[in-house]
Amino acid sequence: MKDFLFVFRNDFVGAPQGSPEEMQAVTQRWMDWVGGIAAQNKLADRGNRLFGTGKVVRGNNVVTDGPYTEIKELIGGYTMVKADSLEEATELAKGCPILDFGGNVEVREVNPL
Q: Stretch 16-37: mean pLDDT, rounded?
């Protein structure tokens, strides 16, 4: 099996919002989806959500604030899965709850060094 990275992207303003009960329901959908992948023994790393703040380091030691608020899309989190092919990993990504909120999942094979 190969390792694949799922990068979760969503509109900067498109993240789900609502009552605590609604947010708990969204969280439960994520837990169920990840749990389903884990039940298939295909979860390599559960991943994490990312804070909205950070820094960008460029050449010549230039450091700027990031991510940039003028972008329309942001990376909200990631996870790692195991699959035999890119097609199989893509099928696993199709159940991601972020898709219901206008987001997307970038699926990338990890190139072991």
A: 89
Domain span including residue 88: 2-109
Percent of the chain residues topping a pLDDT of 70: 90
| Predicted TM-score (pTM) of this structure | 0.83
What is the spatial distance between Cα 17 and Cα 55, in angstroms, rounded to a whole number? Answer: 26
Q: What is the CATH number of the domain that holds 70?
A: 3.30.70.1060
Domain count across the chain: 1
Exposure string of 85-106, with b = 16+ CB inside 10 Å and e = fewer, is: eeebbeebbeebbbeeeebebe
